[in-house]
Amino acid sequence: MALKSYGVMKGRVIGSRPGTGPSPHYQINVVAGSTQYRVAVNVKSQLAPSELLYLVVENFQHPLTVGLSELSHGFSEVPRRPGGIALDFIRGNLFQRTQMRPLPYSVPGPDNDLNEKLNAYVQRAIDDEDATIYAFGERWGPENDQRDRYFGFLPGNGIHDIHMNQGNVGRFTEQDGVWQDGGLLLHFPAMIGSGGELLFPEQWVGVFLAFQSQAWHTDDVTGHRLTPEQPTGEEPDGRIRIVAAMVNPKGDDAGRERVTLLNTTPDTIDLKGWSIADKNKRKTILASQELSPGATALVMLSNEGAQLSNDGGIITLLDKQGLKIDGVSYTREQVARQGWTIVF
Question: Which residue ranges does the record assign to the LTD domain (predicted)?
Fold first, then answer.
């Protein structure tokens, strides 16, 4: 069974508390209109190893930010499907998973644990009244007769599961699902000086967390980790990389969009049966083509398979077993110049 009520809470940060105790959560107090919420962020795993995988993307660029900006403040349920604003660490191409690093929630010294890393960005959002937080996860409340245990507001209200929510083990598999991962996005608008000069550009910051016990190849329907009966074999991620794409060619896009692949391995790889998928999961199946070590291949896309939207999108490479090998995203701004190739 997936999360009961998945969505995103949009608001302004007004307070925080570090995670402590046997099941520590970093707590964030958020206000949206006249309603207060608490965002409870796991900073320690109940399963070994206890350190969470952590990544901050300080210049987060992804087409989903357009839809987020259009949301009203408060909690919004989010459809769990591709092409929208739902998060999926595996299918949404939000980041490269190899960028994540394990981090303890509390250790002596400055700026070296998860509490402190989270606090740096949350405190910045508190200090900037124009900053906006978007917290993805599962909603709880309102608890009409119960004050919030950390910040004291009434009714109790909040959102948790601010982490990857698929590929779990044991009792946590009941929370598995696709297009329902948690995360934090913070938007800091541009700062303009009194003379009209740009003091600080607009910035989106993405904060992503996962448990080391979770799997990174999961079923496309249930979100369950692939079982021993569905072996993944040698770690496939990154063997072939998407290094460039022509998204907005001159003239009609049909038949002119193309994706450039690079073989990073020391072995020749046959791409027969592999596929390119777009943000709506339409696929272009690749014909037999042997790609030598260090060589590139140009994949031409037709109207019958994957299509690259000029409004922003994602491009995913799958092997013949359907396992994700690589994935990238691009924004509307990156394809504004017709005929130019995006380099990833």
Answer: 228-332
